[in-house]
Amino acid sequence: MHPILSRPRRLLWYVLAWIIPGILLAWALVAAHSVAWNSALFFALPAVHVYGFILTSSYYVCLSLPIRQRTAVRVVAVFGGASLLSSLLWVMLCVFWSKIIGDAAGLPGSALIDHQWIILLFVAAVLLYLVSLLAHDVFIAFDNIRSAERHQIASQLQARDAELQMLRSQINPHFLFNSLNSISALTSLNAAAARDMAIELGSFYRKTLALSEQTQISLGEEVELCQYFLAIEKIRFGEKLQVSWAIDPATLTAQVPAMFMQPLIENAIKHGICNLSDGGVIQIKSVIENSWLHIAISNPVDPESPSAIGTATGLKNFKARIHTLYQERARISWYKAHNNFYLDIIIPFEPVMTGSRND
Length: 359
Prior knowledge:
This protein is α+β, with helices and mostly antiparallel strands. It is about 60% helix and about 15% strand. It contains ten helices and seven strands. It has helices at about 10-15, 20-35, 35-55, 55-65, 70-105, 115-190, 190-210, 220-235, 260-270, 315-325, and strands spanning about 215-220, 240-245, 255, 280-290, 290-300, 330-335, 340-350. Helix 7 (about 190-210) packs antiparallel against helix 8 (about 220-235).
C-alpha cells in the first residue's frame, strides 16, 4: 500500500495539504470568469483532491519498473503514458464536474472552464504527475537503501548470535567433560569426595541453567558461578588449590558476558596448578578505572611442563567471543613472567540496570 494511504495520520495531512491548491485554483477561476466564490470552491476543492489521489498511482508506476530494468524507451513509454492517461482522465472528470457546477449556478455555457482552461489544466496535470514520479522514485530508492541496511544489521546480529552460540558450545561441554573425568577418578580413591563433587556439580549446573538464556549477567553473578566451580575443583585438588579474591564491590554490578571467567579459571588450573606438586594461588582481581572494567587473573606455572604453554585454543576462543561482543572496545592480553601466567581483560563498565537483564 502507498505509504500515505497506509497510515490515517499521514492521509489526514495529505488531504489537508491539498486544500491550499484548491483555494488557489478557485481564486484563479473567480479572477478569470468572475464566478461566485462558492461555485469556484465547490469545483476546485473536490477536483484537486481527486487529482491528489490520482497522483498516488505514480508510486505503483515506479514500482512496476525497477531501476535495473529501465531503458530510455521503457521510461518514456511507461512514465510518459501514465502521465498522459492520468492527466486526461482527471481533465475529463473536471469537465464533467464543471458542467454540473455550472448548471447549478446558472452559468452561460453551463461550465466553469473553457477550452483554454482545459489545456492549461491538462499541461499542469502532466507536469505535476512527472514531478510526482520523480519524487516517488527518490523515495523508493531511499526506502530500498534503508531496507538493505536493516537486512544487513539483522544478518550481522544473527551471525553474531550464531558465533556466540558456537563459542559457548565449545566452552561449556569442556568443563563438564573434565568434571565427569574427575568424579570418575575419585570414585576409586575417595567415594565420599566423589559424591560431594557430584553434588557440587549439580548445584553448579542448576545455577548455570538459570542463566543459560542470557548472554550477559552481572559480575557478582559471574563470581558466584566461579565459586561453585572452584568448590568442585577444591574437592579434587584439596589444599593444593588456593584462590585469592580481590574484587572491588563497585564492580559487582558490572555487566559481563555470561560464563566468561569460569573457563579462564579452569585454564589456570589445567595449565598451572595441576602441574605443580605444591599447587599455588590463583589471584583474581577487578577494579574500575575511568569507566573501564579491569579484570586480572594470574596463576603460577611450571616452566618445564609442556602443558604450561598449551595451544592457547581456549584463550583464542575467549578473545574471539569478547571481540564479537565489544568489537574494538575491549582489550585482552596475556603473558608469562617469573613463573607466573598473567591475563588482563579490559571492557567497558556498563552497570546492569535494576530489574532488567540482557537476554
